[in-house]
Amino acid sequence: MLEKKLADLKYTIKSMESVLIAFSGGVDSTFLSRVAFDVLKDRALAVTATSATYPQSEFLEAKKLAKEIGINHEIIISEELDISGFSENTPDRCYYCKGELFSKLREIADRHGFKHVADGSNFDDLDDYRPGMKAAAELGIKSPLKEAKLTKADIRELSKRMKLPTWNKPAFACLASRFPYGSSITQEKLAKVDEAEEFLRGLGIRQLRVRHHGDIARIEVSKEDMVKFVEDEIREKILEKFKKLGYTYITLDLGGYRMGSMNESLVSEPVKA
Description:
This protein is of the alpha/beta class. The protein has helices spanning 2-16, 27-40, 56-69, 93-112, 132-138, 144-147, 152-161, 187-202, 232-244, and strands spanning 19-22, 44-50, 72-77, 116-118, 208-213, 216-221, 249-252.
């Protein structure tokens, strides 16, 4: 079944003839870029957009990964905070963001004579609230992984077989996802969350989110890592660092890390695309 999905993906990419890929350096876009490069060679292009919502560590890793794959790689600036409707942080925030990003990628693709623009959305993304999918559909963005019905687990397994270093990389979403809807997003807040998360990674915690609720930091980690927070030395380090960052209350979410936890307050049905 997995080999059939991979064959379907390669067939889809080959039929595109040329494709520009929105490349973040995450599990999905790295896998898609690798397969696209294997199939199309120099008719595949990876483009990474930098902004305040994209941590520097992720940007540097994306550059490294593109070089290892061998795919042509371009970098652009796409500052979401300048987009009308984004910093207000409405539930449709991602629609405005993706609309801006995909429009820029479409322009680059046209300039290079590339027929298609693709993103790394996978089959599992249909089960979450993803307003960005609406923007993708409106602009004709392809989602080859989704078309091949490749799930996140499938992509990790195939990435492992291909010896991609991202096969077990923790899931990542832009830093804007750390703020409750209706809470304004600023460059200062983004930097604060980024520094807090980098600090926790330095303690050996891999899968995490620091959700920003004003003067409260709500930390989500995997259930396996929760035990670290009762160790006095680690707990004191976290308290000291987070208070320096300006948080008054530092909490551990007993529900653990879960994708899209800020969407739990929404009553909207998952976007189908």
